[in-house]
Automatic annotation (TrEMBL):
Recorded GO MF terms: ABC-type oligopeptide transporter activity; ATP binding; ATP hydrolysis activity
Localization annotation: Cell membrane
PROSITE patterns: ABC_TM1F (PS50929), ABC_TRANSPORTER_2 (PS50893)
Biological source species: Paenibacillus hemerocallicola
Keywords: ATP-binding, Cell membrane, Membrane, Nucleotide-binding, Transmembrane, Transmembrane helix, Transport
A GO CC term assigned to this protein in UniProt: plasma membrane
Pfam families attached to this UniProt entry: ABC_membrane, ABC_tran
Protein name: ABC transporter ATP-binding protein
Domain of life (superkingdom): Bacteria
Entries under CDD domains matching the protein: ABC_6TM_TmrB_like
SMART domains registered for this protein in UniProt: AAA (SM00382)
Coarse class of the protein's main subcellular location: membrane
Domain ABC transporter: 338-573
């Protein structure tokens, strides 16, 4: 196993419970291995003196005791092991989820959500099966085989006969060594194709509305079909290999039995061993055919889950891109002046810089407007402020502290960020708005909704704020979704509020109302508004115009209008658009 930390850690933590369970299963199997001896002795008694009442009662009592002891002890042992297996599943899923929440946006932009789900579902289940079934069946099988061997050697069956019968079983280690790696490799491929399918399914369900609007369902079905076919191919390859392997071990057990019947039968006819020995020997060998099959099963499952365990351990060892430095300090409470110096940034793997030499100061309590062409770096700037991506050291300071030396939680709790397409969860509108503080009063939630101009819309729903939203807020229009997400930003009332194109989907009148509310509620609080429409930022204390990752103009609305440049051109185009619209109306 490459890096068995996850499983070893769990087994170590629970070793004493496992030890008790294994002890119970061991005793159960030792007791069960007495069974051929009782029957062998019974046969010899029959042969010596015929059938007697006392012999029947005595043997029946022994067999009954063996059955009861085996049933109770094996049952308890198996229950404990299964329970621990389920607990492993639960603990590991929690561990994975906690790990996922620490990974950066950069990781998620490269790895689909479906892939993450596959770890949580398929891989965890596969490892759980192996530890539950593996421990139960291995203990059962190994102990039974050992007990049978011991019982056979303690009996007066000749050793040479036992050894001859065992010859086919010597091939087992070779079979295991040969097939094990092949099964593991094929399992790895199955798990990878399952992950791909979950990823594709997640993406296709997410995009189902676009698919339908473009009437491209057959193409999407074809694409999904391809991923399913890949799984089927990989699974068939695995099943072929596993089946051959699983059949081989009992086959070797069967060969032993044939030798026992042929050679043992011959010795019985010759009078070298008693019929009782012959019966006991064949029963002993018959008894190890099932455990051999179980061992085949277990090795099969173990190889498969080993592939999953490697995947899980690899996943858990992914280091988050954004990490707090040792001794990171919380950002001073209420700090809200922002200083950006010589900030240049390129996305990992990108050959061009998204931001170049940005110098910017937003004094505490002021409003900054950012406008610029699409792709000019506006959102990137905010992502660096929030440390969604890591800015170079010393380039961004809040309240005098380099954001890289602060704790992530304190930094993000000081900033309210409202993106253009804020994600809404499948819960009530109230919970969506009160996202940063579920315990907040209804009045405050309603007030935030009023500020974001969504209150009236919400009250029109029969259940008002208790209305449940479907996947990604499907019951709301684009503009309603945007304003619900905006209300969430208002409610957080953070020292710094960033609106990233957050009023783009509302009409001009509503936008004016929202901006007015914003100006009132954010008086003396730092606010950054990114917009494409000048109407959303013209009131700002300072406006910067961005182009190709740099700031090309800065000033107030009036100062920028007085300059020839991108801002004045944008204004002219937008004013003309508004006049045309009014003319048509
Ligand atoms: N995760 C990413 N990985 C690589 N490049 C990215 C990533 N996100 C954005 N970019 C690139 O960085 C540049 C700036 O993008 P950004 O999102 O900051 O622009 P923007 O000004 O906010 O655009 P818009 O107005 O369309 O929202 C673009 O060229 C974009 O393609």
């Amino acid at each position: 196993m490459q890096s068995p930390r996850l499983l070893l850690g769990y087994l170590k933590a629970n070793w004493y419970i496992y030890a008790c369970a294994i002890l119970a299963i061991t005793v159960a199997n030792v007791v069960q291995s007495l069974y051929p001896r009782v029957l062998g002795d019974f046969t010899d008694t029959l042969q010596a003196g015929g059938i007697t009442r006392s012999a029947i009662i005595d043997s029946s009592r022994k067999l009954f005791l063996i059955g009861i002891t085996f049933g109770v002890l094996a049952g308890i042992g198996q229950y404990v092991v299964m329970r621990l297996g389920r607990r492993f599943e639960f603990v590991t899923r929690q561990k994975l989820f906690a790990h996922f929440t620490r990974l950066s946006e950069n990781y998620y932009s490269k790895n689909g959500v479906g892939k993450m789900l596959s770890y949580v579902m398929n891989d965890v289940t596969s490892v759980r099966e192996s530890i539950s079934m593996g421990i139960n069946q291995t203990t059962n099988a190994v102990i039974l085989i050992i007990s049978v061997m011991v019982m056979m050697s303690l009996s007066s069956i000749p050793v040479y006969l036992i050894l001859v019968c065992m010859i086919p079983l010597l091939a087992i280690p070779f079979v295991v060594v040969l097939f094990g790696p092949m099964i593991r490799n094929r399992s790895m491929k199955v798990q990878e194709s399952l992950a791909k399918m979950t990823e594709t399914a997640e993406e296709q369900f997410g995009g189902i509305r676009v698919t339908k609007k473009f009437a491209v369902e057959p193409i999407m079905r074809g694409r999904f079909g391809q991923t399913v076919d890949r799984i089927a191919d990989n699974q068939l390859r695995l099943v072929r290999m596993s089946s051959i392997f699983q059949a081989l071990l009992p086959f070797l057990g069967g060969l032993s039995l044939i030798i026992a019947i042929a050679f043992g039968g011959y010795l019985t006819i010759q009078g070298s061993i008693t019929i009782g020995h012959f019966v006991a020997l064949t029963l002993y060998l018959r008894m190890i055919v099932n455990p051999l099959q179980q061992i085949g099963n277990v090795i099969n499952t173990m190889q498969r889950s080993r592939a999953s365990l490697v995947r899980l351990n690899n996943m858990l060892s992914v280091q988050p891109d954004i990490r707090e430095i040792d001794g990171a300090k919380p950002l001073a409470s209420g700090a809200s002046d922002i200083h950006i110096r010589q900030l240049s940034f390129a996305y990992p793997g990108a050959d061009q810089q998204a931001l170049r030499n940005i110098d910017l100061t937003v004094a505490s309590g002021k409003t900054l407007g950012i406008i610029g062409k699409t792709g000019s770096g506006k959102t990137t700037l905010v992502k660096l402020l929030l440390r969604v991506y890591e800015p170079p050291e010393g380039t961004i300071r809040i309240g005098g502290d380099d954001v890289r030396s602060t704790t992530l939680a304190s930094l993000r709790s000081q900033i309210g960020y409202v993106p253009q397409d804020g994600f809404l969860f499948s819960t009530t509108i109230r919970d969506n708005i009160a996202f940063s503080n579920r315990g907040i009063s209804v009045e405050k939630v309603e007030h935030a909704a009023k500020q974001a101009q969504i209150y009236t819309n919400i009250m029109e729903f029969p259940e008002g704020f208790e209305t449940k939203l479907g996947e990604r807020g499907i019951t709301l229009s684009g503009g309603q979704r945007q304003r619900t997400s905006l209300a969430r930003g208002f409610l957080k009332d953070a020292p710094i509020l960033v609106l990233d194109d957050s009023v783009s989907a509302v009409d001009a009148v509503t936008e004016t109302d929202i901006i007015d509310n914003l100006r009132t509620s954010r008086r003396n609080k730092t606010t950054i508004i990114i917009a494409h429409r000048i109407s959303a930022i013209k009131h700002a204390d300072e406006i910067v115009v961005m182009d190709k990752g740099t700031i090309v103009q800065r000033g107030t609305h009036d100062q920028l209008l007085a300059q020839k440049g991108l801002y004045a051109s944008l204004y002219a185009i937008q004013e003309e658009g508004t006049r045309n619209a009014e003319g048509k109306a």
